[in-house]
Amino acid sequence: MFNVRHSWVLLAAAGCFMAACNKSNSDDEEVGNWIRRSTLEGPARGEAVSFVIGDRAYIGTGYDGTYRLKDFWYYNQTSNSRTQVADLPGSARNNAVGFAVGAKGIVATGYDGVNRLNDTWVYDADKDVWTAGAAFTGTARYGATAFAIGPKGYVTCGYDGNYLKDFYAYDTSSTGGAWTKLEAFGGEKRAYAAAFVIDSKAYVVTGANPNTGQTLSVNDIWMFDPASTLANKWTEKRKISNVSTEDYDNDYDIVSSKCAAFVMNNKGYLATGSKSGLTTNVWEYDPISDLWDQKRSFEGLARSGAVGFSINNRGYVALGTSSSLPFEDLWEFDPSAEYNEND
């Protein structure tokens, strides 16, 4: 049975963790420029999923404030336009996970308004066809986090009535695919975390868990390296809040949940999300220095539950919700450009 209390807490806590490095925020936050792109052709929504196949970003499902959705669209970067593709065959849903492995897009888990879900659907971009994949072998859940590295996709965390940190791999090489349970995620249990992949390593950060007894959100970031020879392939990185005696984290204000994440030039980006309220903060993560810089704030309205993705090394944030108002806009971020208020 869906827990209304926990749902409200998670929606209020949705957002993402980010941090700054040794430079002051006043110096860094003016670096970068946001450019508004084509709006979604379809209902405005938050809590959708996205995945990228080739040079197309596919976006679908979500919640428009009244109905869960199952339509899908792809964004064409060259023409700055959207094209509708086949609907997801399963239940309309929000707070699912999406990732791409090769030419296949995968959507799993989520919430249909009554039930938490554990189904898996596989999209063939060449044929514009969805087929049922092997059922997710973890508990039915929503608010999980997913990423893909090489031939496999991975799902961790989420909420099934309790906050979770279990970890699963999805192998698409066999018909229908196969899920395998792996050693648990190394950090705190959480829902609505963000994930991004740089140099075949995944970083899981931010998220909500009011059961920690500290804050709604958590302040750890963990790296997953599938090529590691260690038994536990998770490594903790520096905290994303000001907890050290050094100067690098003095301005860190990253802790949040339900934010959008994307990668450009081998750096990870977190944008928007929820803290004590909605935020437009943007943070850049350098995996080499393990430090964060604050960048130019997102120039759309503050929101949570947006999607983030990259096409051809260009980063985007789309959709999301502010209170009960869903959005349909799409923004591109240039992290090195000077701010231009006319874009």
Note the main attributes of this structure.
343 residues; four-stranded antiparallel β-sheet; Neuraminidase; mainly beta; disordered N terminus
User: Would you identify the CATH H-level superfamily?
Assistant: Kelch-type beta propeller
Which series of helices and strands comes N to C? HHEEEEEEEEEEEEEEEEEEEEEEEEEE
The number of distinct β-strands equals: 26
Q: How widely separated are the two ends?
A: 46 Å
Q: What percent of residues adopt helix (DSSP H or I)?
A: under 10%
Poorly predicted ranges: 1-28
Residue-averaged pLDDT, rounded? Answer: 90
Number of helices: 2
- Order of strands, main sheet, comes to 1-26-23-22
Principal-axes geometry comes out as globular
> What is the CATH top level name?
Mainly Beta
What is the number of domains?
1
Structural class: mainly beta
From the alpha carbons, calculate the radius of gyration and give it in angstroms: 18 Å
Could you tell me the CATH topology label.
Neuraminidase
Q: Would you identify the CATH architecture?
A: 6 Propeller
**What oligomeric state do these chains adopt?**
single chain
| Strand fraction | 35-45%
The profile of the biggest β sheet is:
4 strands, antiparallel
